[in-house]
Design a protein that fits this description.
InterPro entries: AhpD-like (IPR029032), AhpD_core (IPR004675), CMD-like (IPR003779). The protein is an all-alpha fold. It has helices at residues 6-9, 11-30, 35-49, 52-64, 69-74, 86-99, 116-139. The longest helix has 24 residues, at 116-139.
């Protein structure tokens, strides 16, 4: 069998995932997480999963929200740069931890940079982002210039 567009084949499940996404967005806002941090997490998860569709979308979203080219350029090696705040580093480490189970690296700790509410909200963000990546990759969403 060739490519199957999951959102068209099962639109109700797609709508449910979109609803979960909206609920997670509300939790992120309630946890007072910066919208740029949210986009950075979405980008990093999409890098880890190799999802070109989501990478392009969330990089564009981050730029529209004021993200810099320098930070976008080094996000794949965020732990080696001084571009990110402690809270952003904690969220990116958490994103990697949730995406790559189990993680065996030096940057998988959250420390005290995030509250329990923020850890939960970011964890749900990563879970939903992983789901979106899998829908886009499995459906072979086009990514052309």
């Amino acid at each position: 069998m060739g490519t199957v567009n999951l959102s068209k084949q099962h639109p109700e499940q797609y709508k449910l995932l979109a609803g979960l996404d909206a609920s997670v967005a509300a939790a992120l806002a309630a946890a007072e997480l910066d919208p740029l941090l949210v986009e950075l997490v979405k980008i990093r998860v999409s890098q880890l999963n190799g999802c070109a569709f989501c990478l392009r979308m969330h990089t564009r979203d981050a730029i529209a929200k004021g993200e810099t080219a320098d930070r976008l350029a080094v996000i794949a090696a965020w732990w080696e740069s001084q571009y990110f705040s402690d809270q952003e580093k904690a969220a990116l480490a958490l994103a990697e931890n949730v995406t790559e189970l189990p993680v065996h690296d030096d940057h998988d700790t959250v420390d005290d940079a995030l509250t329990a509410e923020q850890v939960s909200a970011v964890s749900w963000l990563v879970i939903v982002m992983n789901a979106w990546n899998r829908v886009a990759i499995r459906s072979h969403y086009p990514v052309a210039p």
